[in-house]
Amino acid sequence: MVAPGPKQRYFWLRIANRAPMASSGGQRKRVKTGNGRRKAGGRKRPFVGRPGVRRAIVFGWATIVAVAVGFLLMRSMDETTVARQTPAARPAPSAVAAAPSPSPAEQLAQTPRTPVEPAPRPRETAVVAPPPPVTADEIPYDARPAWQRFAAASPVVGKRPAIAIVIDDDGLNKKEAEELLSLEAPITLSIMGYAEGMTDYARRARALGDELLVHVPMEPQGKADPGTKALTVDLSPAEIRARLRWHLDRHDGFVGINNHMGSRFSSDAAGMKVVIEELKGRGLAFLDSRTAATSVGEETARAAGIPTASRDVFLDNEIGASAIEAQLVLVERKAREKGMAIAIGHPHAATIEALRRFIPQAKARGIVFVPVSAVIARRSGEAIEAVGTTGGASGKRSGSPPPPRG
Ligand SMILES: [Zn+2]
């Protein structure tokens, strides 16, 4: 290899140091092929190093960063706007009183949802309105006791005979529970205290104009098992109260209780006194199922000053179409004699079928079907605001304008 001459040595040094080109014919030619501008003095910079190119690159990056920042800002502003607007779009507080206040995201998801408006059914009352989902302790504007607050709308009875149909033991059989909701009269559903998962069912029932009781298991005479956490005469007052509270606290929106079985317990004055005191504290009513002639339930309730009534007829002690029909004839006769009568049945297929036939026929004969609270109110001398008219116009217990019904 030949040792490089001075010119060549300089060239390699320049490459190594990335120094600017010197003015040399051959090298200048090479540099000229680039599109850079020549500097005064003939010295040229590498392409990327030239100020024009550098400015273009800086400008390009600045544009990209500016667009990205702008995009992010717009997105965050959109979210802020939505979050601010959503509370205004929510329904009035009364309609959501029971719901825990949802996060902005949940509010957004709920906003377009319309309140549950059940399909109208041709009931005589035509006064049912979907009540808001409420709990007993979240209605600061309504000071009435729970039995009035949660009472289903009742048609004006006037001088016509009225029947309250109460169906006990509800919630243990889901299929029959659903069928009860399709009966074309306001039914009082007594949900078994220990029944599971009844929140949605109870809400739908009330929206349809049905009324709710909690069915509290009590000790019978004999060996029949009344069920979970039944009230028995051997319990201490504290334990009776604790068990009753356990049943009551599992449900919502009910006007009172009635006894499941309980021929023994309801005849025990000391035990019933504990029960009635607890109901009184909660503003609830007591319906005496009268499973024993010796029951002291109604008289204990009356003595304590809580609204109460007793069952007039059991519909299905004998489960069979003709037996149930005979009991329905009996309750209609009692309603004509006494003005109002309370029938208690059970969610048997035969009972539901008999009611499905009986209700329209009885209506045609001038019978009015009412929630049990209407009978309790009359028998307790309580004035319950009558709502609606027999002519099919509708109204609401609360006095707010009725929703359109088909
Ligand atoms: Zn029962």
From TrEMBL:
Gene3D superfamilies: Glycoside hydrolase/deacetylase (3.20.20.370)
Transmembrane segments: 53-74
Region (Disordered): 21-47, 84-134, 386-406
SUPFAM superfamilies, A to Z: Glycoside hydrolase/deacetylase
InterPro entries: Divergent_DAC (IPR006837), Glyco_hydro/deAcase_b/a-brl (IPR011330)
Keywords of this entry: Membrane, Transmembrane, Transmembrane helix
Basic residues compositional bias, start-end: 27-47
One Gene Ontology biological process: carbohydrate metabolic process
Biased composition, class Low complexity, residue ranges: 87-100
PANTHER family from the UniProt entry: DIVERGENT POLYSACCHARIDE DEACETYLASE SUPERFAMILY (PTHR30105:SF2), UNCHARACTERIZED YIBQ-RELATED (PTHR30105)
UniProt protein name: Divergent polysaccharide deacetylase family protein
Source organism (scientific name): Oleomonas cavernae
